[in-house]
Amino acid sequence: MKSYMISDIFKTHWSELTTDEMAMVLIYKSKLDYARHSGEMSLAGLYAIRIMQQLRKHSAVGELTVEQAVDCINDLSFIADPWFMFPDLGVSSPFEAPPTHLKHHTLGQLYWMDSLFSKFIIQDYIDRRAHPPQDPSAIAEMYLDEMIGVIYTSPPAFDERLISTRGNEIKKMLTHSARTVILYSYANTKKFIIDEFPLTFPTREDDDETGVKAPVDSEPMWQSIVYDLSESPAYPGTDKAKAAPMYEALNYLERKHKEQQKRKSA
How far apart, in whole angstroms, are the C-alpha atoms of residue 242 and residue 190? Predict the structure, then answer.
């Protein structure tokens, strides 16, 4: 009997997947993790099958049982890694596919993309409570498209006065799958930033509680961050604060918070 390597049967790297396949894997991976966390192992097995169906190279492999899917999925470690990649949309100037972790973006861009992200989450939360379940409303999608427009605008070309215009422009280039992949990538990037700068983004006291909490608009937080940076000698004034490379600016603020902590404990 011929033996097979896992790579003979399944795709084993994100680069082998189409944007549509990436979106479905990300969605079902999120559902799988939630089912496992909730102890619903039979449901987790069904989600594992859905993932393996997306990763299967040949339909001739046959149908998978729950047990086979669970065994196989444990060998595909790449899907467990946090997703930070933004798909190439085939766009042209002023748009471009951003690098991993958005490492070239400015603090002003982060201010707007995260404010719009929170507004999308809030609107989607309201929509789903009013008419569950349903796709995002036109208002929620507007916030999402504007967020994606900020993400995909090259830093030298970014102008906050054109956010709505850029959102409408990039909307025409987006598929449902591309929106899904970008949304997951930004959410993971946001978590990465929060973990990297814990003093700048302190965890709320209720973050460890169970249950669904109403989302909060992040724009007031970003207004405070930009103000703090603009009052520093390194980035004086709002314009300089917003134009600062975002990781450079966040590193600066994190060091200032550490210095404040040391002074308080001295």
Answer: 18
